[in-house]
Specification:
This protein is α/β, with parallel strands linked by helices. Helices cover 39% and strands 15% of the residues. A seven-stranded mixed beta sheet has the order 1-7-6-5-4-2-3, with helices on both faces. A five-stranded mixed beta sheet has the order 8-9-12-11-10. Helix 2 runs parallel beside helix 9 (234-244) and helix 3 (76-87) crosses helix 8 (215-228). The relative contact order is 0.13.
Length: 383
């Protein structure tokens, strides 16, 4: 665990692979899938998550999340599914926040019945909602805050305290916030998961996942992970390590832009609703401020009813109507056709993911240019 140096320094220097042969400034890549087995302390194999590049990047993941151990996976869903299956077995029960990434919800609904694992999605995201959903066989509470795509905020310390009181494991998806804005382990959360494809990668060219937690919990996750085989290739590990060096710079720029764009949209006569925890009108603004250092680069909004959300996105010239999020370029999408497409219309309606909802991943471009693009797209749709 590294806390004595700044986050910027941690992102750049912790978890580097030292180039002992040529003294290069960046980490060398070890692409081998076959390593010596005799007369060595560690038997290395990519599926064991312990190649030189994998081990080193895991240290960076742990350091930025204030954890004892870290691990990188081939995707966010590989990290999430491996972690959940590591701590749940037939007859167990999990309490799941009702507003979270659609892929996670679908995994739970589709796969857990096959394993005999019971689950309850909360009615809301207050602590009382989680407490009322706990059963005698509950082993895990799983949350995501800010949530995807409505940016709801859950009380991290409140959930952590509840879990500890009941002897339950707490897991959080920290993708939307990123470690720059929020460190859940500091609030008592047991395990943090990430889609590293998003802010940790940040350039829309890496598919990866990450987990950070105690060494004890990581041993359990590793034991399942080596069997499921969700490791990340060493080239992608190297790419992710390189990208994370600029994590703080990117996220702080996205924070700044997103707050300005949220205020602009909130004051616009053609916008019906804006969802961003950095707006004082957000119902959990004070809670967000108490547990986040920055409010993130993600927001969602709805146009007035007479304006078509899909036509609006097609008229954008600068902002890309594209899937995924958190790249340095700004993107928009309709969650009902992408992140939450696997849910039924009834399920989407129950959590507020309307067909008119637009998720906005704010990049690092000029604020003025982004505003101009939105304005021209609205005018084009209104003609």
């Amino acid at each position: 665990m590294t806390k004595k140096i700044g986050l910027e320094t941690t992102c750049v220097h912790v978890g580097e692979v030292k180039d002992e042969q040529f003294k290069g400034a960046v980490s060398p890549i070890y692409m081998s899938t076959s390593y010596q087995f005799d007369d060595v302390d560690v038997k290395r194999y990519p599926r064991y998550f312990n190649t030189p590049n994998q081990e080193s990047l895991s240290k960076k993941i742990a350091a930025i999340e204030h954890a004892e151990a870290g691990m990188v996976f081939g995707s966010g869903m590989a990290a999430i599914s491996t972690t959940l299956l590591a701590f749940l077995k037939v007859g167990d029960h999990i309490v799941v926040q009702n507003t979270l990434y659609g892929g996670t919800s679908n995994f739970i609904r589709e796969e857990f019945p096959k394993y005999g694992i019971e689950f309850t999605f909360t009615d809301g995201y207050e602590i009382s909602d989680f407490e009322s959903a706990i059963q005698d066989n509950t082993k895990v509470i799983y949350i995501e805050t800010p949530s995807n795509p409505l940016l709801t905020i859950t009380d991290i310390k409140g959930v952590s305290d509840l879990a500890k009181q009941k002897g339950i494991l707490s897991i959080i998806d920290n993708t939307f916030a990123s470690p720059v804005n929020q460190n859940p382990i500091d609030f008592g959360i047991d395990i943090v998961v990430h889609s590293a494809t998003k802010y940790l990668g940040g350039h829309s060219d890496i598919l990866a996942g990450a987990v950070a937690c105690s060494k004890e919990h990581m041993d359990t996750i590793w034991n399942v992970g080596k069997n499921l085989g969700g490791n990340l290739s060493d080239f992608m590990v190297w790419m992710l390590e390189r990208s994370m060096k600029t994590l703080v710079l990117r996220v702080e720029a996205q924070n700044k832009n997103a707050k300005k764009l949220a205020k602009f949209l909130n004051a616009h006569s053609d916008i019906k609703n804006v969802y961003y925890p950095g707006l004082k009108s957000h119902p959990q603004y004070r809670l967000a401020k108490s547990q986040m250092r920055g409010f993130g680069g993600m927001l969602s909004f709805e146009l007035n009813d007479e304006l078509d959300a899909l036509k609006f996105q097609k008229e954008l010239k600068l902002i890309k109507p594209a899937m995924s999020l958190a790249g340095v370029e700004s993107t928009m999408l309709s969650p009902y056709l992408t992140s939450h497409a696997l849910l039924t219309q009834e399920e989407r309606d129950s959590i507020g993911v309307t067909n008119g909802l637009i998720r906005f991943s704010v990049g690092i471009e000029s604020k003025k240019d982004l505003i101009k693009d939105i304005e021209q797209a609205i005018k084009a749709v209104k003609k």
